[in-house]
Design brief:
Elements lengths: L5 E3 L2 E3 L3 E3 L15 H12 L4 E3 L3 E2 L11 E2 L6 H11 L5 E7 L13 E3 L7 H4 L5 E3 L2 H21 L3 E6 L4 H6 L14 H4 L1 H14 L5 E6 L10 H13 L4 E5 L23 H10 L5 E4 L5 H9 L5 E4 L1 H5 L3 H6 L16 H5 L2 H15 L10 H15 L7
Parallel strand pairs: 3-4, 3-14, 4-7, 5-6, 5-7, 7-10, 8-9, 10-11, 11-12, 12-13, 13-14
Antiparallel strand pairs: 1-2
């Protein structure tokens, strides 16, 4: 079952394993793909996954999520993008570019200004890491949506096989969907129809710019898991609308920086591997023909096969396991292994551990090693990763970025 091909918008994916997006932060100072990034994706392509989803590619250099983001807002880096796409498609893999705008979820010092649907701050303990954001004007909202379309057009020209619109994890589209963070009184806020308007405007711009025959996925939260936030009921309604709009694949995830459920913080005692499988099952009951990818928690072939055979998922999304074992899909196909164990990375510093901030840094270091042509280091300690991350942030995060 795991090795069975799937057709998405007439595009054949050779198996059901999807390398889900991780923010690699391996772009150059000019926000272009680097040799490290190209090497990383070539390694994943030869690791056996049928579909690779890139990490955050930003639609504007004025809206970076973090240092090292690749930005595609014009064709200045087209040759490098072509090289990246070509390397990602070796060994018969497909590669879809994930495109994103961080909104206000951008660390201090990375951009000159943060923007959001509304001037709503994060919780106090988190807001200290982020600049105060101003509310977007209506014209700015439309312009950003058009930027998504332009990025999709360039991605197709560069040779990528499809696009994923990032609508999850607390970034700009997710902020618009959330009644907690979107308190606008115009057509972009209020009712769920209005709060989802930005997502569907982005989708329309992508379709118009890249063509209806170019596969488009949307990554969406099952829920934000925040009081007053985007709920599972809201999400199911939006998924139904996405299905009606002809989206080729919906990837189910969940959580935001405020409550990072995508890292599995509250799922440690669950008997089921996948964090959001129950929500996926509820989607499939109403939309059995909608191609669905589920990401988060899969660790064993048996768990993956169960999700596929029950039709709860059509594709198995894996992220962190492939940051440490990039050839895990091949090993699963050959039955050299039955799965992997991924321990939580803890420093003993409660705030860092509770917010999973160190987790991100630890895995980012593994991606960088693979990009250098080295093997990942599963035994790297959490504290060593923290020290390395602090050193890197001290030299990069607070440098003024080119706008």
């Amino acid at each position: 079952m795991l090795e069975t091909p799937i057709i998405l918008n007439k595009q054949k994916i050779k198996n059901r394993v999807m390398k889900a997006a991780m923010s690699e932060a391996l772009g150059s100072r000019e926000h272009a793909p680097t040799e490290k990034l190209i090497t990383l994706y070539r390694t994943w392509a030869h690791g056996g996954a049928g579909l690779l989803i890139t990490g955050n590619v930003m639609v504007s250099a004025k809206a970076l999520g973090e240092p090292g983001n690749v930005v595609v807002e014009d064709e200045r880096h087209l040759d490098l993008l072509k090289t990246w796409a070509s390397a990602s498609k070796e060994n018969g893999a497909r590669c879809w570019m994930q495109i994103n705008h961080p909104g206000k979820q951008v660390f201090k010092g990375v951009v000159n200004e943060a923007v959001a649907p509304s001037e709503v701050p994060f919780s106090k303990d988190l807001q200290r890491f982020f600049p105060k954001a101003r509310a977007l004007t209506e014209q700015e909202i439309i312009t950003i949506a058009e930027k998504f379309g332009e990025t999709a057009r360039i991605a197709r020209k560069a040779g990528f096989d499809g696009i994923q619109i990032h609508g999850a994890h607390g970034y700009l589209i997710s902020q618009f969907l959330s009644p907690k963070h979107n308190i606008r009184q115009d057509q972009w806020g209020g009712s769920l129809e209005n709060r989802s308007r930005f997502l569907f405007t982005v989708l329309n711009c992508v379709r118009e710019a890249a063509g209806t025959d170019f596969p488009v996925s949307v990554k969406l939260n099952a829920a934000d898991f925040l009081k007053g936030g985007f709920s599972m009921e809201d999400s199911l309604t939006v998924v139904k609308k996405l299905a009606g709009a002809g989206v080729d694949l919906v990837e189910v995830s969940g959580g935001t920086y405020e409550n990072p459920e995508m890292t599995g913080l509250s799922h440690q005692s669950s008997k089921r591997e996948a964090y959001f499988l129950s929500f996926a099952e509820s989607v499939k009951r109403e939309l059995p023909n909608l191609p669905l990818a589920v990401t988060g928690g899969f660790r064993t072939r048996a768990g993956m096969e169960e999700a596929l055979s029950s039709r709860a998922a059509d594709m198995i999304g894996m992220a962190r396991p492939l940051a440490v074992y990039p050839d895990l899909p091949l090993k699963l196909f050959k039955r050299n292994v039955d799965g992997v164990t991924m321990d939580r990375k803890k420093t003993g510093i409660p705030f860092i551990d509770q917010k999973a901030m160190l987790e991100l840094a630890w895995y980012s270091l593994q991606l960088e090693r693979i990009g250098k042509g080295k093997a990942a280091l599963p035994q790297m300690s959490a504290r060593k990763a923290l020290v390395k991350a602090v050193i890197k942030n001290g030299t990069e995060v607070f440098k003024k970025r080119r706008s």
